[in-house]
Amino acid sequence: MQKDGAPAAKRQKSPPKPRETQFLDLPFTDNTNQKCQLEILLKLLRKKKKIVVIAGAGISVRAGIPDFRSSDGLFNTLKTAKNSGKDLFDASVYKDDELTSSFHDMVRELHGKATRAKPTQFHHLLATLATEGRLLRLYSQNVDCIETRLEPLTTAVPLQTKGPWPRTIQVHGGLEKMNCSKCGWVGPLEPERFVGAEPPDCNECLEMESVRGVVGKRSLGVGKLRPRIVLYNEFHPDADAIGAVAEADIKARPDAIIVVGTSLKVPGVKRIVQEMCKTVRDYRGGVSVWVNEHDPPPAKDYNFDLVVRGDCEEVARLAKMPPWDCDPESSEESFVELDPNEPPRVSSQLEVQIPHHLPSPSLSPDPHTVCEPKLKSRKRAATVVDLGKEKPVKKAKARSKKPTLVDLKKPVKKRAAVVKTTSTNFTAINHAFKSVKVPSGSAKTKTKGAGARRALKQSPATIEIEDLVTVSSSLSPPASTIPSPTHSVRSIPVSSLLN
What we know:
The protein is of the alpha/beta class. It has helices at residues 35-47, 74-77, 97-116, 121-131, 203-215, 239-251, 267-282, 312-319, 424-434, 443-457, 465-473, 494-498; strands at residues 22-25, 51-55, 135-140, 168-170, 173-180, 186-188, 225-229, 256-260, 287-292, 306-309, 351-355, 369-371, 384-386, 489-493. Helix 10 (443-457) packs across helix 11. Residues 328-340, 344-352, 354-367, 369-390, 400-447, 459-492 and 494-499 have low confidence and may be disordered.
């Protein structure tokens, strides 16, 4: 028992359940008993709202672009007796003429392969996620720029330190641009200018030098052009902007992260993965996924919930996401054909049969003119479809603001010659009812009309159905407008009714 006045004991919180890493081997088969792991992956791709993807060179291998560290990668194929292939991607490449010439040759060859390459299925998967608004950011380490050719994955060069930022962030630059090492000018890459050991001169600097020479100012020198890719051991021109983007994405609390096609050897990328994985795993329902043919490096800072061992193209095949550039209105699945054997119809060739054999001749509308009632709403205007050359019959102005239905069993205080209803069909019939005339030569008609007028003056008064018919018949047009009973059915094109 707790004593009075004693502080309440704090409820001890149970520690979070440990999250174990699950594995999925591709290609997937039913015999592997990994359906649960496959469902985790597919649910992430189809349901998560804020997905961050950190991609490496592995997503471009199927497009014909070699990676870096595999047996067929650039580091092994570019190896020489004096230098390793990794030396061609170091900032010291410009300190040796032989390395500079080899670097320029590699740039021209890699640019040619990237230009001829086409986006893979996984590239299109990322574009679909971006089109659906579920791809928060794509951090790409690739310099081939294949993903940025897709419209949903475009980027901006140079990257600004303040948002809004593009969907794709190029962590290591790209081969589509070149820049001046002196004035900072950025423009499209011209690979034919990078031949030999001497880097090409900057045209902007040459023009500025000519202007300064004319006005008599001293020379500031001419800068050298280079591909706008980031090499090892050099300053990153977009470092501050990339840090600002990563900070904003972490504050946005992504619910999923996919690390695909990278070995996580670059320190800057490792830092981004660590922070993103920590944020995602702290989020309830957040999932971190590793996709690669090799297991992730051992590190406690970026443990993954699901490790997918296989090709990322197989992931795209299993996801079966719709193409990002498809038009849902023009797709074949947007309609259902009821009878495949029935020939197609054109709306202008369809006809509507309008019968004119109503129960009472006095209620039959004019077969040459169909008038719809004038509505009070501003959004819907009264439409008149003239089927002949005769002019439509003008309507009498309604006296009441709201249409009411007259109850013949209750006393009537006002003239009830006009009966209104709330339905459009009943109003059209009422219009035809007004345009019918009963012969006025009989004494019985005058007597009933006079009796109806006397009944209206009395309060309360009761009017029979015959009296209403007699009163309304006195307002009918001449007998020349009575429709001919011989005209029974007329065919009308649907297009004339729609226009």
